[in-house]
Design brief:
2 copies of one chain form a homodimer.
Chain A (H helix, E strand, L loop, with lengths): L6 E2 L22 H7 L3 E6 L4 E3 L7 E15 L5 E7 L4 E2 L10 E14 H9 L2 H27 L2 H20 L4 E3 L4 H8 L3 H13 L3 E4 L2 E4 L2 H9 L1
Antiparallel strand pairs in A: 1-2, 2-7, 3-7, 4-5, 4-6, 4-7, 8-10, 9-10
The first copy, chain A, binds a DNA duplex (30 and 30 nucleotides) through helix 6.
Protein name (chains A, B): Helix-turn-helix domain-containing protein
Keywords (chains A, B): DNA-binding, Transcription, Transcription regulation
InterPro entries (chains A, B): cNMP-bd_dom (IPR000595), cNMP-bd_dom_sf (IPR018490), Env_Response_Regulators (IPR050397), HTH_CRP (IPR012318), RmlC-like_jellyroll (IPR014710), Tscrpt_reg_HTH_Crp-type_CS (IPR018335), WH-like_DNA-bd_sf (IPR036388), WH_DNA-bd_sf (IPR036390)
DNA sequence: ACAGCCGATTGACTCAGATCAAATTTGAGT
DNA sequence: ACTCAAATTTGATCTGAGTCAATCGGCTGT
């Protein structure tokens, strides 16, 4: 979906009340740096389904997710889609070598990002190795996750994929909402399918099967883990 | 396979004649830094099939591949294997956050690496943002490749996987051997299968099919692209 | 409340790729 | 050259997940 109404807040001192101040790239900055830093970014809002950036575009900005969930994906020429990840508050997007984004990103529900112009952000990093080190850490963590996901895509069965996804997603929500057996799933079944390398029908059938086995309960906007241990057993193979 | 005979050359001034001096992480260092740097590393040889490091191990070293090919892989508890990449001369291995390697690496044929103790390497980086920037670049490039590979694993057919692999491998060999329609494949069929998320039988059948179609020729230790354009068409989907 | 729409579920059937099972080729060691 | 083991190829069959095709259910707007 194309962006329709994008709201940009006026610049100002807003890092103070930023939810991800301690989590994101910002965590590597001291108070003085943070004051300087906040003038570089501006908060931008996106509505549900709006595209924040797309694959083929020249990179002009970096993004720090503040609120909401985004799907990150690549498309094949014939329309097949692979979701390479979901971005949550605290995630940092826009790093690349080619000068182009190598995936597209759109909002799942309402999203707020902190957007930085590429040039001024790069200049800011220049003499702050601490920030560069932080960004490097984030890249290495993502690389590790990407490798785990390759194993899932290449070598796991549909049941294992779904079980692993539910546990992994629950884990990602821990820092945002605390650990809970009730897992909200803001993304569609199609999104889950495209993340796991399955079809929507297989995802749906697997959910139903798990529910009939009494392992999960499908609730509005998510699932509830009735028997986490059994889900873990399914995921482990 | 366990390491049997690992030959370690005595330390010394060897960066001068290092094949990857201009390519690897070293390319970010000036002559003076390189002189200091070479005292940190030592060349280590591994025989065919030997394990350089494994997944669960605590990381004690970083590695710069000098000669040969390595397979990088993860295993599931039941033995299923996913190869997450192949390492070639110039590749840098060992970055991680957890303090543990998150994949295993073994030699395909004879391999020489430049091995750095983690502690001294980290200290050397400390006040050399240039080197950190270089390492960050390498991480970002790998991340981009990892995402491409996710698309392949999750959304491409066996034919597309094999065709994409042949072209991608040929491309990786360009910087080492120049562009050629003759592509050497040092890894086994099983390795290729585990890289593409297929079985050895499917890889073998696909090779044979491509050969019967006159698109490739299976030669000793590799293949020859008889009709590169047609392989590209198969890969693009 | 109702109509219409979109996402999700369910069922019937198909098929790409896996599995099982031999050959066949290759290669290292004698 | 000869033997044995391992890697690869080939064939026959099976099956997990995909495809095609209806429903079903939950919102939205009237």
């Amino acid at each position: 979906m194309k962006p329709s109404v994008v709201t940009i807040e006026p610049n100002g001192h807003f890092c103070d009340d930023c939810a991800v101040r301690g989590a994101a790239v910002c965590s590597s900055l001291d108070a003085a740096e943070l004051r300087e830093f906040e003038h570089l970014g501006r908060r931008v809002h996106f509505g549900s389904g709006e595209t924040v950036f797309s694959e083929e575009e020249i990179t002009t900005s970096f993004y720090n997710v503040l609120e909401g969930v985004m799907r990150l994906y690549k498309l094949l020429p014939d329309g097949r889609r692979q979701i390479v990840g979901f971005a949550l508050p605290g995630d940092f997007l826009g790093m690349n070598l080619s000068g182009r984004h190598n995936f597209s990103a759109d909002a799942i529900g309402a999203v707020t990002v902190c957007q930085f112009a590429k040039a001024s952000f790069s200049r800011f990093i220049e003499d702050r190795p601490q920030l560069l080190r932080r960004i490097n850490e984030l890249a290495i963590r993502e690389l590790s996750q990407a490798r785990d996901h390759m194993v899932l895509l290449g070598r796991r069965s549909a049941d294992e994929k779904v079980a692993t996804f539910l546990l992994g997603w629950r884990e990602r929500l821990v820092t945002l909402k605390g650990l809970s057996d009730t897992v909200s799933l803001p993304m569609s079944r199609q999104d889950i399918a495209d993340y796991l390398g399955l079809t929507i029908e297989t995802v749906s059938r697997t959910f139903t099967k798990l529910e009939r086995q009494g392992v999960i309960e499908i609730i509005h906007g998510g699932i509830s883990l009735l028997d986490p241990a059994r889900v873990e057993a399914m995921a482990a193979a």
